[in-house]
Amino acid sequence: MLRRIEEIDHRIEELANDQGRPTSNTFSRRSPFTDNVLGTLKPKGFKMPSVPQYDGTTNPVDHLETFITIMLLHGASNGFFCRAFPTTLTGAARDWYSRIKPNSISIFVDFGDDLVRHFMSSRRPRKTAASLMAIRQEESEPLKTFVSPFHREALQVPNLDPSAATNVLLTGAKSNNFRRSVARRNPQSLADLMAGAEEFISV
What we know:
With 203 residues, this protein is mainly alpha-helical. It has two domains: 36-122, no CATH class; 129-202, Non-ribosomal Peptide Synthetase Peptidyl Carrier Protein, Chain A (Orthogonal Bundle). The chain has twelve helices and no strands. The chain has helices spanning 2-18, 24-30, 35-38, 60-73, 78-84, 91-98, 108-118, 129-132, 143-154, 162-172, 176-185, 190-202.
């Protein structure tokens, strides 16, 4: 059986040369991937999952993390990571990929790092507790209208310390009664802080 497959592959190569079509060797010389990557087999039973397209205008790290998470669930290898990733690129990102030096990518980590470096300007600034200080309650603004956007922003701050979140929320609030209510609760998490705020608002 193996010999038969080799004979078929050889015949396909001959037909491609006869008709002037590029062979697999020609393709590999144009591809940004090394031969080891190009030779990676698709995982058994693998079907390419739906991955959002990346066009270079948003945070490349978000796209990479989404892609990696999905592919790991399907048991993909380094080589197949590399081969599958270009199918998620479009627009400016696809143009960038088409200009990568041939035979230069052997590790997906390098591929991803190159993408992030190229589209670094599209990354959103990382949120911090200090970012929340810009959210302050106006004189006539309902407390609920102030708390809701604070919560949305706080969820985007990595490893937000509960005490820092509490201090920033109380600093931005106008109601002394609200401040006292939240301070007495002594929230131990963002969820606890928001529960206390909602409890006060609903009274």
